[in-house]
Known about the structure:
The chain has 189 residues and is an alpha+beta fold. The chain has helices spanning 4-9, 48-58, 93-102, 108-118, 125-138, 163-166, 180-186, and strands at residues 26-30, 43-45, 66-76, 81-83, 143-147, 156-160, 167-179. The strands form two sheets. A four-stranded mixed beta sheet has the order 2-6-5-4, with no helix packed on it. It has a three-stranded antiparallel beta sheet with strand order 1-3-7.
Amino acid sequence: xxxxxxxxxxxxxxxxxxxxxxxxxxxHASPHRFHISEIRPMSHFGTNKAARGRAxxxxxxxxxxxxxxxxxxxxxxxxxxxxxxxxxxxxxxxDIVDMLHSHxxxxxxxxxxxxxxxxxxxxxRPKGYQHIADFLHSKGVDHLHYINAIxxxxxxxxxxxxxxxxxxxxxxxxxxxxxxxxxxxxxxP
Length: 189
């Protein structure tokens, strides 16, 4: 039986790294069951440990040591990215706009305009993320990146602006068992 690393190195051509893709395999995990085509703009990707940690941190208190999660691995096309930071928050639209400004990626005027567009009720967060994605796309930015301060502390994570153009699935398990206790080790509040 092949180890996971051997599988990745000897996988069928369709799953091997393409010339324009990042060398790293990126992971995304969610407690929700959805198809890869439903991944929204401004979604996060990181190490497998970070994904497990995120799944553990967003799940309700499990009744067993394992939780079911939608775990996905991807190849990403990462061209132009802007750095932000991980403040331990949820990277809400307002947080992201403030971080873009504090890192001097956007002007005071752009900050004010974006803040006005993303100041929406929590139920309308997807619209706020779409406003940010549209703005970043107009600047030629395809991702934001940061050093993870919570899940898999010290690892690099990315926020993808347009998943339809940037991500290519390697595998998806809609009912993967994530060891909750192991995931909690990756999530240090």
